[in-house]
TrEMBL record:
Domain of life per record: Eukaryota
One BP annotation, GO: cardiac muscle thin filament assembly
Gene: Neb_2
Keyword annotations from UniProtKB, A to Z: Actin-binding, Repeat
Presence of the UniProt keyword 4Fe-4S in the record: no
A Pfam family assignment: Nebulin
Record's protein name: NEBU protein
One Gene Ontology term of the molecular function aspect: actin filament binding
GO cellular component: Z disc
């Protein structure tokens, strides 16, 4: 289908001075990177001499110093207004935190050797504490305390079996407490208990009526011719309205 077009396409001749061809050449020059950098490449190929005291060099150095100083003090300028004065180092939170971190670090380093060696303790088997612990374990061990007898087969009417049963009954907790069964359910008054008697004695000791005797209950007769009584009578006559 395209064979005729592909064959005719190579035989078309367009003059080079047509407006379309001229415009395409101009566009090619505008978008050419090599043509765009031609003057710069020629300038680079030539030798140039720039003095150290030239204005552009001084300007570049000054700009570099200003930028370096600004970057160096940027963090300080940001935090300049955030600090609050503290009278002591303990009141400064950052210093307190640093001191606490240092203390923890020192404590960890101090106990490092102990933690490394605490799992490597070797105790001799014949030490006094080990022997005492073994003896205590033997005394409180239930296995050594109880020694089960062999399963003997005995007749139920043998004398030793009957005697053992009586001994077991006497030692049994149920038989030991059977005499208290008749007390279960019986009421009990606390009138004569030790606590009640103790409270009554305490009340008698703290009773003011028994401790003190009231004045009106005492038989007392005043003497009428004492100087105090005579003076009181004279004063009563002097201030009497009658």
């Amino acid at each position: 289908y395209r064979e005729a077009w592909d064959r005719d396409k190579t035989q078309i001749s367009i003059p080079s001075d047509t407006p379309v061809m001229l415009q395409s050449k101009v566009n090619a020059l505008n978008i050419s990177d090599k043509h765009y950098q031609k003057a710069w490449d020629e300038a680079k190929a030539k030798s140039y001499d720039i003095r150290a005291d030239a204005i552009p060099i001084k300007h570049a150095k000054a700009s570099r110093d200003i930028a370096s100083e600004y970057k160096y003090k940027e963090t300080h300028e940001k935090q300049k207004g955030h600090y609050i004065g503290c009278r002591t180092a303990q009141e400064d939170p950052k210093l307190s935190w640093a001191a606490r971190a240092m203390l923890l670090q020192n404590d960890r380093i101090y106990r490092k050797a102990y933690h490394d060696s605490k799992a490597q303790v070797h105790i001799p088997v014949d030490a006094m504490s080990v022997q005492a612990a073994k003896e205590c374990q033997t005394l409180v061990s239930d296995i050594d305390y109880r020694q089960y007898l062999h399963q003997w087969t005995c007749l139920p009417d043998q004398n030793d079996v009957i005697h053992a049963r009586k001994a077991y009954d006497l030692q049994s907790d149920n038989v030991y407490k059977s005499d208290l069964e008749w007390l279960r359910g019986i009421g009990w008054l606390t009138e004569g208990s030790v606590d009640v008697v103790k409270v009554k004695k305490a009340q008698e000791l703290l009773n003011e009526r028994l401790y003190r005797t009231r004045p009106e209950e005492m038989k007392f007769t005043s003497i009428t011719d004492t100087p105090d009584v005579v003076q009181a009578k004279i004063n009563a006559l002097q201030i009497s309205d009658v």
